């Protein structure tokens, strides 16, 4: 079931639920230019759902198939949207145990969120798991330029280019699209 929630800065996040009426929840964060319908997210959701857990897979700003309202997108260091999702889930007041799982960029967000909030994590958060996180963004970008991984670069840039162009049209003077093809 899809739900749209508001962010504190008047934007929105689309989240997808599998509700098994459990008191255990896993929150899944996708990677760069991914979404809640990527095979790795669906596979994790299927696994936890089969174990009887509720599942919440969320979409970063602009990744659910609809562009977000604000000028900003998302990035590896932005944990405020993950915090919004966690707070919304915990406001359901039914979860005693929450696991956070993130893939690639979503894993970076997960680990950063846990570190930033280590002293005051909600008691329900019991575990954080990160898969294939880029430890160094620079070296990750360098790897994407190699021919054996070039298809990733093309995929990421094609999707990002469409979004940046639309944002530049929506926010002229704030976002500059010129030169994007040289990235």
Biggest sheet, spatial arrangement of strands: 1-2-4-3-5-6
The whole-angstrom Rg is 17 Å
| CATH overall fold name of the largest domain | Rossmann fold
Number of helical segments with 4 or more residues: 5
- Please state the average pLDDT score: 91
Uncertain runs with pLDDT below 50, 5 residues or more? Answer: none
Question: SSE order, as H and E?
Answer: EEEHEHEHEHH
Can I get a quick summary?
Helix content is 35%, strand content 20%. By secondary structure, it is of the alpha/beta class.
What do these coordinates show?
The structure is a single chain. The protein is of the alpha/beta class. It has two domains: 2-135, Alpha/Beta hydrolase fold, catalytic domain (Rossmann fold); 136-183. The chain is built from five helices and six strands. It has helices spanning 39-50, 80-90, 105-116, 137-144, 150-170, and strands at residues 2-6, 12-18, 24-29, 54-58, 97-103, 125-131. Strands 1-2-4-3-5-6 form a six-stranded mixed sheet, with helices on both faces. β5, α3 (105-116) and β6 form a beta-alpha-beta unit. The radius of gyration is 17 Å and the shape is globular. The mean pLDDT is 91.
